[in-house]
Design goal:
single chain; 286 residues; mainly alpha; 13 helices; flat
Length: 286
C-alpha cells in the first residue's frame, strides 16, 4: 500500500471508530484511498464494512465481490457479503457466502474470535432460507393469504418510496435510517399477525414450522441425531465434530484444545432430537 493510501485508510478507520461512517466511506472512495492502491483487497473490505453500517447494501456487495476477486480466501469479504445479501432478502446466496466465510474462518487462526459470529450468521441465513420456503408453502395453501400478503408488501414498498422522496439527498442520515427501520419493523409485525390468524384457522396446513436452535449442529447447521458434548458444554453432531477434529484438534466455537477422547454422548439432547423428528418429519430437510 502506498504511503498516501495508508494515511487515508487510517483516517477512514478513525472516522469509522467514531461512528462517522459517511466520512469513512468517502476516505475509502475510489477517488482517494482505493485509487492510490486499487489492488489492495483490504480497502474494499473496509469500505464494505462502512457501507454495511450505512445500509448501502448493493454498493457493499460490489466492494465485497471486488475484494474476493483480489483475494479469493478473504473471510471478512464473504462475511460482509452474506450480511448484505440477507438484508436484500437473498437467503440462498447469503447462506453460500456465510458458509464460505465459516470454512475460511476455521482454516485461520487470525480470525478465530469471529467463529461464533459467523456461525450465528450461517444459522440466520439458513433460517431465512427455510422461512422463504415456508412462506411459499403456506401461501400456496391459501389464495386469500397470498393476496393479503402481497397487499402488505406493496404497502411497505409504497411507504419506503415516500421516505425516499422525503429524505432525498439525506438518505444516509440517522433520521432516515430510523424511519426506514420503523417501516420494516411495522410491516414485519403485520405480516406475522396475519399469518398467526390464518394459522389458528388451519393449524395443520398453515402453522409455521421451525427447528429449535438447540437441536441444530454448529458445524453442519443441520438437525442432530447423534449429538456429543465437549468439556466446555458445546454439543455437536458426532460425525461432523469427528471430521473437524481430524483437521484441527480444537473446539470449533471456542478454539480450546479438544480431543476425541473428551467427547461424551449427549443422551438428553439425543432424545430431544429423536422426539422432535418423530413428530416433525419435514425437519430432515431443514
Amino acid at each position: 500500500m502506498s504511503a498516501r493510501a495508508n494515511v487515508l485508510k487510517e483516517e477512514g478507520n478513525k472516522h469509522f471508530q467514531n461512528g462517522d461512517y459517511k466520512s469513512a466511506e468517502v476516505l475509502y472512495d475510489p477517488k482517494t484511498s482505493i485509487q492510490q492502491d486499487s489492488l489492495n483487497p483490504k480497502l474494499f473490505t473496509n469500505r464494505a464494512m462502512t457501507r454495511l453500517r450505512l445500509q448501502s447494501w448493493e454498493p457493499c456487495m460490489d466492494d465485497c465481490l471486488r475484494s474476493i476477486q483480489l483475494s479469493p480466501h478473504n473471510m471478512k469479504a464473504y462475511y460482509y457479503l452474506a450480511q448484505a445479501q440477507l438484508a436484500l432478502h437473498h437467503p440462498n446466496e447469503a447462506l453460500s457466502s456465510a458458509l464460505t466465510a465459516y470454512d475460511e474462518c476455521l482454516k485461520s487462526d487470525i480470525f478465530n474470535s469471529s467463529t461464533r459470529h459467523i456461525s450465528q450468521l450461517v444459522l440466520q441465513a439458513k433460517k431465512d432460507k427455510w422461512e422463504t420456503r415456508e412462506r411459499e408453502r403456506i401461501r400456496q395453501r391459501s389464495d386469500l393469504l397470498r393476496e393479503l400478503e402481497d397487499g402488505l408488501t406493496a404497502m411497505k414498498g409504497f411507504e419506503l418510496q415516500n421516505l425516499g422522496a422525503k429524505f432525498r439527498g439525506r438518505g444516509d442520515s440517522a433520521e432516515a435510517r430510523e424511519e426506514r427501520e420503523d417501516v420494516e419493523t411495522g410491516a414485519r409485525k403485520k405480516m406475522e399477525e396475519l399469518r398467526s390468524v390464518f394459522a389458528l384457522a388451519d393449524p395443520e396446513n398453515l402453522q409455521r414450522r421451525e427447528v429449535p436452535d438447540h437441536l441444530i449442529d454448529n458445524i453442519s447447521f443441520c438437525i442432530m441425531h447423534d449429538p456429543v458434548v465437549t468439556k466446555t458444554g458445546h454439543s455437536y453432531e458426532r460425525s461432523t465434530i469427528l471430521e473437524h477434529l481430524k483437521r484441527s484438534p480444537t473446539d470449533p466455537l471456542t478454539r480450546d484444545p479438544l480431543t476425541i477422547d473428551e467427547l461424551r454422548p449427549n443422551l438428553a439432547l439425543k432424545q430431544a432430537c429423536a422426539e422432535f423428528l418423530e413428530s416433525n418429519g419435514w425437519a430432515v430437510d431443514y
